[in-house]
Amino acid sequence: MARRSHGDRRKTILRAAGRLFSQRGYYGTSIRDIAAAIRLQGGSLYAHITSKEELLWEIVDEAAQAFLSSLEPIVRSGRPPAEKLRLAVAAHLRVVTERQDEAVVFNHEWKALSPRRRADILARRDAYEALFREILQEGIEAGVFRADLNVPLITRFILTALNGVAVWYRPKGPLSPEQIAEAFADWVLRGLQTCEPPETSG
Fold first, then answer.
1. Is residue 108 located within the same domain as residue 118?
2. How many structural domains comprise the chain?
3. Are residues 64 and 41 in the same domain?
4. Which residues form the HTH tetR-type domain (predicted)?
């Protein structure tokens, strides 16, 4: 049998760490816990990592990249605002459901990072929220979303609801990620859209 490569071993370690951080929290998980999950001695784990925080950083960093890279093309696509928002909801939920443990860790454990890394993640979280706000503001300016919307508040409301899916979603549950995304987008758009279509010139 071929020996497992260093890269494969590291992926296994990251998956185990992500699962444990998601279930127990960063501070509730020890290096021994992670090692035991993949049947290694605690000391042997340091042949593959330098610290527990390094694992947290890689998990959170990859999740941040996944969220941003899924949303940026949608915002820049030139599609109508309502379609952009529907696609943004679906993209966010795709990351949440495909990277469920990572999403939980990203949303709840990032504050355990060192100050420099925490600042980096906070900046990327802010950039991600700004993209959602851009979609909402574009819809207001186009006359398809209500003019009285509190854009920062609505953005936080949408993202909080979407992030919560990572806690209760089950791959073998009654709803697929696509069905959940469609339902969420319908609910959100009903609350955002104006009653009258925007006027067109000519």
1. yes
2. 2
3. no
4. 7-67
Residue 66 belongs to domain with CATH number: 1.10.357.10
d(C-alpha 70, C-alpha 83), whole Å: 15
Give bridge partners of residue 193 from the DSSP assignment.
145
Instruction: Quick: pLDDT tens for 116-133.
Output: 999 999 999 999 999 999
Distance CA 33, CA 140 (A): 50
pLDDT tens-digit profile of 13-49? Answer: 999 999 999 999 999 999 999 999 988 765 677 777 8
The rounded distance, in Å, linking the Cα atoms of 83 and 68 is 18
If we measure between CA atoms, which residue out of 97, 162, 111, 105 comes closest to residue 132? Answer: 162
**Is residue 97 located within the same domain as residue 60?**
yes
Residue-level pLDDT at 1: 38
What pLDDT shows up at residue 23?
A: 95
Task: Tell me which of 30-39, 138-147, 149-158 is least confident.
Answer: 30-39
Question: 11 and 78: one domain?
Answer: no
Polymer length of the chain: 202
In the DSSP assignment, the letter for residue 39 is T
One domain for residues 122 and 94: yes
Sign of CA dihedral 78, 135, 61, 11: negative
